[in-house]
Structures are given as C-alpha cells and as structure tokens.
Amino acid sequence: MKRTIFLSLIFLVLFTSVVFAHKPIFETSDTTFEKPIVVKDHTISYAIYGSLDKIDDVDFVKFEAKKKDPLFVQMTIPIIKGNEDFSPSFAIIGKGIKQRDKLPFDIPEGYGSLVIKPSPKEYFYEKFTQTKYYIRQTIRGEIPEDGEYYVAVFSDGEKGKYSLAIGEKEKFTVVDWLKMPFIYVVVKYFFNPFATVAVIGFIIILIFYIVKRRRA
Strands of 160-166's sheet, edge to edge? Predict the structure, then answer.
C-alpha cells in the first residue's frame, strides 16, 4: 500500500511539472517602484499573481537583464465573477527604453517606458489547476541594453485580479515539484477563497471521519 502511494505521488509530481509551466509568485503586499517584486531570472517562466485593489493602484516587478536577452511578458486575466472584463495595461520601464510613453504615474529621470495595452481576449485553460484565463496582451523581443528593468501593471480606474507571465524557459527543481500540491491550493484560493476553504474543510472532516471509522 505504501509503495502504491509513493508511486502515485511520483507520477503526480512528474505530471504536474509538465502541465504547470510557470513558477508562481504571489503578491503578498502592495508593491511600489522602490519595493517591487523581484524576479531573479527573467528568462525563466514565472507567473506573478496579483491584483489592483484601488483605482490608482500600480504593481511593479523588477529584473536585471543583459543586452539581447529574450524578453517575454504576457498579461492573463483569471475568468472569475466580476473580473471577466478587467483589462489592465502594463509598461516596460528602464534606462534602456528610448521612448517614453505616457504613464499615469511618475518614473525616475532617465528611464524610458513602453506601454502595452490590452488586445482582444484569447481564451486559455490551465489543466493542472483547472483554472480559466483570458490572454490580453503579449510582448516578445530583445533587451536593448544591460540594466535594471521594471514591469508596471496599471489600469484606467479598474480593479481586479491578474496573472502576469514573465519568461518562457521552463526550469524546475525537485523542490519546485514538491511544492506542486501547495501551489495548486494557493492558485485555487486566489481564484475563489471561499470555495477553496470550504473544500479543504470538507476534506479534513472526511479524513477525520474515515480515521474514526477505522478505529471503531
């Protein structure tokens, strides 16, 4: 029995590492230009789960890059009640950006900005967590100069949840695989906190009931 459970867990780990391509990062507190979420390697596939909670809210992600490194950023919107039409923009900001698109917030002198606005919705279903998204906008290109770069997420007064993908290279460690069950729960909680807590509570009660019946 123990061997069967162990093999099942190995299969689950290997399976989920394939279908859940992004390493998740969850916004735990509001970010600023001075205190952004930091991505250690922007070429590796990460997904930042965050939300704009106020009409003037702006979230910031920071990474360091070398000239001609690949650049990939994609905005996806969780399909949940009240969030379906959420359409934030994002901007790539850095000293290597020569243009300076208009932003609803200030950036330091010498930094340029490239704003990527929402495009028509493209449906996407993530199999591992059984979650649904709309892909809104994507940018692919090359880093123009060595330096620090920021991705800023903002909207025209809208509030809602988003998942921002950065990087396309899939790279997983054993620790990442072992975290998959936890990631599953946290992503489901991000989509629907009440339903997730209810399901976890039901599972705990069911386990206690089964254990009690076996001991009786």
Answer: 23-26, 46-52, 160-166, 70-78, 131-142, 122-126
CB 86 within 8 A of CB 64: no
String of DSSP letters for the chain: -HHHHHHHHHHHHHHHHHH--SEEEE--S---SSS-EE-S-TTB-EEEEEEE-STT--EEEEEEE-TT-EEEEEEEEE--TTTTT---EEEEEETT---B---SS---TT-EEEEE---S-EEEEETTTTEEEEEEEEEEEE--SSEEEEEEEE-SS--EEEEEEE--B----HHHHHTHHHHHHHHHHHH-HHHHHHHHHHHHHHHHHHHHHHH-
Distance (Å, rounded) from C-alpha 102 to C-alpha 60? 16
Q: Roughly what angle, to the nearest 10 degrees, separates helices 180-191 and 2-19?
A: 60
Close Cβ partners of 13 (under 8 Å, ≥ 6 residues apart): 177, 178, 180
Q: How many CA atoms lie within 13 A of 80 on its CB side?
A: 19
Mean pLDDT by 10 residues, the chain (216 residues): 38 40 84 95 94 94 97 96 94 96 95 96 87 95 96 95 93 66 76 65 65 70
